[in-house]
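re: ur question from yesterday

yeah so i grabbed the chain u mentioned. its 172 aa long if i counted rite. heres the sequnce exactly as i have it in my notes:
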Amino acid sequence: MSVEVTIRPFREEDAPQVRELFIIVNRLLSPPHMRDAFEAYIVRSLTDEMERVAAYYGERGGGFWVALREKKVVGMFGLEPAATDAMELRRMYVDPSARRSGIARLMLQFAEAECRRLDMQRLELSTSELQPAALELYGHAGYRLLNEAVAEQASNKTLGGGIRRYYFEKIL
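ran it thru and got these C-alpha cells back, copy pasting raw so excuse formatting
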C-alpha cells in the first residue's frame, strides 16, 4: 500500500522541514574526507538560499515546491530561470526514508509540466558523481548530458572540492 504524495508550492511553515531535509541529505552525501567542506557548504547554502527560500526563488522569478506525504515534507525542488527559454532545476532532494518510491520521478515530471506551463523550451539541471541514483533518473527521463566538469570553486550551487558535476538538459 502506497501513501499518496502531494506536490504544492512552498509555504513558510514548511521552512523547518525543508531546512532539515537539506541538511540530512547533504550530510549523507558527504564522503568522510570531505566532512568539513560539506559542513561549510551547508552553512553557506542555508544562509544564501535555504533559510530564505521564498525570497531567494522569488527574487529570481522562480519557485519552490515541496512533496508531502501525510503532512511530512518527503521531497523538495526549486526552479529558477537559466535563460529566456529555460529553467534550471535546483535542490531536488528526497527524504532518505522515502527513497525508491517514485517521489523524485513525480517531482521531475511536475517540474517539467511547470516549465511547459511557463512556455519554457528546456529544463536544465546538474548533479554530482555523489548522486548515482539522480544520474540514473535523469538518463531514464530523457535528459541529455551537455558536459561534465570538476567543480573547484565553492558556491551555493556547488561544493567545489574537486567533485565531478554533470550538466543535463531536456527539450520540452
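noticed a couple things. Helices lie at 15-29, 35-48, 53-59, 103-117, 132-140. also Residues 15-29 form the longest helix (15 residues).
anyway ttyl
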